[in-house]
User: Fold this.
Amino acid sequence: MTVREEIKQLKREKNAIILAHYYVSPEVQELADYIGDSFYLSKIAAETDAEVIVFCGVSFMGESAKVLSPGKTVLMPDAGADCAMAHMADPETIEKMRDEYDDLAVVCYINSTAELKRYSDVCVTSANAVKIVRALPNRNIFFIPDRNLARFAASQVPEKHFIFNEGFCPVHEKMKAEEVRRAKEMHPAAEVLAHPECTRELLELTDYIGSTSGIISYAEKSGAKEFIVCTENGVRYELEKRCPDKKFYFPETEPVCRDMKLITPEKILHVLKTGENAVRMEAEICEASRKPLERMLELAR
Ligand code: 13P
Ligand code: SF4
Assistant:
């Protein structure tokens, strides 16, 4: 039996589904039952009837799936796959901000540890941050951990007062506006599509800013034939699948999230066989971080 066939058989036996983020490698995306951005995958995790979820992504995604579906087994093909930004905020600063500002909402990007989520009022993803911040009754918004998504949301919701935190995604922050300018010179007809984790300077050069799903559906609907894509290169697989007649270029600094690329078909097979790397969380953290995640699902509806 091939690895693919073995995975298929084990999925049936164990009533398991495979969720994969657009950033994992094409051979892993091919094995997935659901591929999507963080928001879509969190909804699937919350709603599925499967008993086992194999989450092909980084640890905050597995944690969120476990928090939203505590009765299910959530298996991580590589337990070491983590998101650097998920740790770039701290509870002490959150508490300080709560003392300093009344009417404060702590808005937590889902790319964060469950430990950070438990101190927050609501979670957001890049697909719904603007909508959710706009819907909050609070005027003061402390947005953690990502300063770039926070700045983008602030530009879209000028009626709110934002307090920024200095977290960032190393993969998106590495792409420079200068590279995009050069790519535009080489491909003048191309539209520039970017993830809001990119720097403000880069975002100023774009035609569209959105989550990975947003970028993919924009490219699909656009009349343009060429695109400069400013996000992790895993999205190329779905972009080319949906738009075979269009061309996609990436900035010179190849945007690769090494943690996402740790997931392989062999590791998926291994955790399905052994049950290793099941997400385990302290009950108290699990309970407390569920509230902001559920509030996100509610406000995004
Ligand atoms: P999405 O919200 O588009 O899934 O992005 C997640 C992420 O990790 C971006 O770096
Ligand atoms: Fe985290 Fe950046 Fe990787 Fe996304 S691309 S998972 S934000 S390190």
Summary: Residues 283-299 form the longest helix (17 residues). The pocket of iron/sulfur cluster (ligand 2) is lined by residues 58, 83-85, 111, 169-171, 197, 232, 257, 259-260 (CB under 6 Å). Residues 74 and 163 are 34 Å apart (CA to CA).
